[in-house]
Amino acid sequence: MVYRVGLLGLGTVGTGVVEILQRPPHPLLQAVEIAAVGVRSLDKPRLVPIPPECLTTNLEGIVSDPEIDAVIELMGGLEPARSLILKAIDHGKPVITANKAVIARYGEEIFQAAAQARVAVLLEAAVGGGIPVIQALQQSLRASRIQAVWGIINGTTNFILSQMAQEGSSFAEALAQAQAHGYAEADPSADVEGWDAADKIAILASLAFGVSVPRQAIPCEGIGSISSTDIRYAREWGYTFKLLAIAQRAEGQGGEPTLDIRVHPALLPVTHPLANIHGVDNAVWVQGDPLGQVVLSGPGAGRGPTASAVVGDLLILLAHLQTGAQLPNPLWGFAASPPVASLLPLAEAQSEFYVRVLAQDRPGVMGAIGTCFGRHGVSLESITQKECHQELAEIVILTHSVREADCRQALAEIQQLPQVAEIPSLFRVLR
Amino acid sequence: MVYRVGLLGLGTVGTGVVEILQRPPHPLLQAVEIAAVGVRSLDKPRLVPIPPECLTTNLEGIVSDPEIDAVIELMGGLEPARSLILKAIDHGKPVITANKAVIARYGEEIFQAAAQARVAVLLEAAVGGGIPVIQALQQSLRASRIQAVWGIINGTTNFILSQMAQEGSSFAEALAQAQAHGYAEADPSADVEGWDAADKIAILASLAFGVSVPRQAIPCEGIGSISSTDIRYAREWGYTFKLLAIAQRAEGQGGEPTLDIRVHPALLPVTHPLANIHGVDNAVWVQGDPLGQVVLSGPGAGRGPTASAVVGDLLILLAHLQTGAQLPNPLWGFAASPPVASLLPLAEAQSEFYVRVLAQDRPGVMGAIGTCFGRHGVSLESITQKECHQELAEIVILTHSVREADCRQALAEIQQLPQVAEIPSLFRVLR
Q1: Strand locations in B104-198, DSSP E?
Q2: Within the 298-327 window of chain B, which residues sit less than 8 Å (CB to CB) from chain A?
Q3: pTM score > 0.80 for this model?
């Protein structure tokens, strides 16, 4: 048997895929022939040998070519990736994609089309690079009722935060280092603002909870507001900063089931399993009943790991064909026509908080701050005066677990206190 | 559709399986009916409601009953588990098992029988409880060439070592605590001597490297010889003790490819991903090319996690049936008729070593010890005199990476030095 694959895109990951297939690590992969590679420019030098007659700029031609058995989409971006994926499905071709952006926004449309056409869409490489988290959430872990999925699923921001923690760098210095290493792009917004992590948690939530999550409804805060001062103080209390992508079951105000989904930096106790994920590594922490807590970690990006995940999907597809199956595996992909999740408004979410206040160094300030919190039902773990800068004292408050809206209302009032100059930091503490 | 399942054994895990199926977490599982449960005693009180007519002591009857669609073997032990599994296969029934002992010893026989009968044998629950490590090694990760699999895959010993490290307990005290918690059996040998971990690494090695590993050929050292003194010294140098199960590619003496497989305690740098796995948790660290390093961790045993893995396999089986497949998935199970691995003799393995020597507190002792090591080509990182007890000084040596046989020959000579009283500790240092 020869299994003819069409590749859309020959960038970093595409090159890695070709490299793996040149020396197939599993006998089933020996059947694969890269029959066509769709690229933007035919003249660009390539790191892997591709026969010139396989290279084409006609990507539409690949997805509609009756000679092509399956399509691997590695272009990234929304269009033309979405249209090409849909067209491939329409022509009865299974699709393997590493494109988190397109799945996070058009996953429902794509998986409904795939279900109708009875073809598979596999996406292991879309989240967590080489970490086999998609398959785990689609299959083994579905025997438990998943309660929560927390992820460090953006390597760039984890590198920046690791640098800030280990080297004492400022955010700007750490970002520059990430750019120098090629971990961050010239415009780092998608990583630093948490948008990339939001794409990925939308996908993980869909798989874990069987619901469709509107991507634009995910509250998203970046890491740009974390100062080296905050990192230092957090460490003194035994916490580390991480950009977390969170999806978990929660009760709404009326007790109705909702999905609490959000991306933001948070302080984690250094003993938390996600606290020891350093550098560009990714990790996903899954809590289920009766499963307990499972953590999958590893390289979240890069040519080799991501290509390994793509070829893993190809292997799974080939193995499936060998069984004589007539239909794709029902555990692949999202639930068909999933209900849209009712999302918990961020204001209703419960967290502990870390707050840093700059106030005049006078008696009574800490009492005034404490009184404001108390008036809004925010009970405190500690108020500590830290360093003084000129006439301003730095006061750090750790709250117990409270409703976010209550904490913010208290802070709005504290901001108005005559002794208070500024509230430079407000972060959630998770455990 | 009704899918009639026969359960062999209704102990801890069997009870957990019934509990999950009472409230199926996935729609496909609604088809499952527990049609028969094979037990030793009909009179024993049960934690889950099973209709009396389903309970039977006739286990042979279950595996040959034409009304039963699949068999779940949760008895443990070698016989009659092995014979019942083979008989179920013989009657064309897929088998799900949590039995690491039987798979480690008879996996090849069982999977050959399954291949001939064209039925599936699934074993996610046999290693690592709820951690989806088997499926990962069988599927996604097979797109990389696996170089090494290291596991903390025995919760009992990890609990004991964690207690010793955190509480400063002796081995005997920590073992007693493990027994009090129900983590260790009255006869703890299978855990403490590393035999359970050896069963599991035999299975992981078969999956990762596609070779058959004779279980009895796996060198195995337990944790009983680790003293609280060693744990304290190790911590001073930044190491922690873990019972590691290791399987990795290595070169034999003639440069031929071999499998380096072993179970023993080792010192790991506290920054190693496996060093932060505490208590009864398990973790498996996989290194592959071009995958990089992936760690899967979580609860390695217990009713809920193990039952979740068993039901996960059942879900995978049901999903497979929905595709109209005629054959089991070729990625399940071991490679058919795998070659037997050529194993690297432990004497040839390379490690750094931690050695603790008791010697008379006289000038020249450290020089004499260093000279002996040097004579056998063992280069040292440090020789440090620690505490003195009566007239004996405690000397701790850390070597560079050396051939194990060379280190042991040097130690045999050191043992003969007139100033040396005893060599109470010799452990490998891995990183």
Answers
A1: 121-122, 145-152
A2: 298-299, 302-305, 307-316, 319-320, 322-327
A3: yes
